[in-house]
Design goal:
With 43 residues, the chain is mainly alpha-helical. It has one domain. It is flat and about 35 Å long.
């Protein structure tokens, strides 16, 4: 994500939508794979 768009809660909103969609479809858990550690995302 471009620097100017970080810190606006976009990832939290996206994850909330994904969790709601999964729950609606009967999923009990989700697994997020992000590949290599994203140090910038951990800040």
């Amino acid at each position: 994500m471009k620097t100017g768009h970080r810190g606006r809660g976009t990832a939290k909103k996206l994850m909330a939508q994904l969790k709601n969609a999964a729950k609606t479809k009967g999923y009990h858990y989700l697994i997020l794979e992000s590949g290599e550690p994203l140090v910038a995302a951990m800040a």
